[in-house]
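Throughout our pipeline, every protein is held as a single compact record rather than as scattered files. The remainder of this section carries one protein's record, kept here as part of the documentation.

===
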Amino acid sequence: MIRKHFAGFVASALAMAVTAQAFAGTVTTDGADIVVKTKGGLEVATTDKQYSFKIGGRLQADYSRFDGFYTNNGNTADAGYFRRAFLEIGGVLATDWAYQVNYDFSHNAGGDNRSEDGYFDEASLAYNGFKPVSIKVGRFDPEFGLEKATSSKWVTAPERTAAYDLADWVNSHNGGLGIQASSNIGESVYLSGGVFAKDATNADKDGDSTKQFNFRGVFAPLHSDGNVLHFGLNVAQRDLSDTAFDGRIRSRLGMRGVSTDGGQDAGTNGNRLTLAGANNTPAGAYDTDRAWGLEAAFATGPFSVQGEYLKRKVEADAAAYQDIKATGYTAQVAYTLTGEARGYKLGKFDAIKPQNKQIGAWEVFYRYDHIEAEDDNGAYARVGDIEGKVHNLGLNWYANESIKLSGTYIKAKVDNAQNANGDDDGDGFVLRAQYVF
């Protein structure tokens, strides 16, 4: 009996040994020891902090339903789509270098006409050896505005302010490349400036890409979670001389589902507000395209309020054309019912981290967007300024640090514009499920 039990033990031990050889090995390094972290993605780093590699991502699944001005015939339509599906890889090289590669499988995160197979949202390399100055090169979005600086994972409403639609080029890379220098000055000041070559489809008659300059400056005398006082100034300019381009100023008025670049949308019945400009604007019509903006925010405990203002002017370069001007602003108030403060890092808001792991964090918010444009060219010369007003009322549930569920009611009203059915207002809702890893 003893021999039988011993034989069984030996057999079990041999099986375990074979399994261990098949599924485990010895980890060795030729330098510093490594640390593996699994919270918020998978990160492997050396203990001397010279090298690191982190893989993460975000998935945002949206469903929306809307009617009135949001559709051409005024009837109800809906849309279900992945707003973002990012795979993100980043890390540190030789202490002073940092890299970031973000690939969007949804091809729905940026502007129009994204590739059906996805695209690189970012592919950049930064040198941080001139502390506190960082120099970044590659493909990445220019900096313009507080909501743009805040990650799409942690912006309060499902879509950023409609004011950005007035100058959608200011904070989008449009498939181009750039170089940017940024720096913190003490604990209260942040500055960045960059030059970009972009808009290959809008190249001038010689095939020269559109050149753009961006500047952002932030002063935040209060800059900790739940204790924020933030002011910012933004300037962006691009050269459109001898350039044919799509000059339309359009807005989805907070309802992405009327026209998505990937997934279901309202199809040909989806309606977007056109405020000014014309498609296929000929080369030589306009010269300098300039935008500037102001931003401000205040937070105390679970309460926060923020706002932005944007003004754009497209200067005519031919006698047959008039300048195009656009103005927009937004104001938002938010309150965390469960008491948590919004995170804040110099220049941007960050995540809300639930204190209670059982009920998570619950946030209510309201945002108002106002946009308008003045265009005295062509058909626009016979109408007054076209305006859009958007109300967003929503509830966010941060179930934990990885999962966020939200629902937002959106109501829009336009002046001096209608859909094909004669509607000048519309409403709907957006539901989002977000997973961050």
Remarks:
- Residues 29 and 435 are 34 Å apart (CA to CA).
- Helices lie at 2-23, 146-149.
